[in-house]
Amino acid sequence: MTRLLVLLVFLAGAALAAPTNNLTLTWDWTDNSTNGIVYRGTASGMYTTNFPVMGTNVFSDCVPLSATYYYAVTAVNMFGDQSVYSSELMVQRIKPTPPVLQKYTVTLK
After folding, report:
1. Whole-angstrom Cα distance, residue 103 to residue 11?
2. Hey, which bits of the chain come out as E strands?
3. CATH architecture of 4-93
4. Smallest Cα–Cα separation from 39: which of 67, 7, 73, 3?
5. Which of 36, 66, 91, 102 is most solvent-facing, going by the fewest CB within 10 Å?
């Protein structure tokens, strides 16, 4: 059975408004696996999309504004055996709150 060790996520802070990939997942394999499957869904434990990854431990995705995605990764060994899901990662991309302008009145005497 193949296992995963670590699942990390990086959100590009300043680039969140850009329509490009703004999420990067990386992980470490525990048994020299180099292939896996990244799963994504909009509800916890309900993955509706999967992305095979071959020869890498990095995956990039674009998370739209106001979206919540759940990710998990499985490893696949050279015989095609798939591991159990990694720990689930929830990613929310919230729209930033605009700054509040303060209005001041100054009276000159």
Report:
1. 34
2. 4-11, 23-29, 35-41, 49-54, 58-61, 67-76, 89-93
3. Sandwich (2.60)
4. 73
5. 102
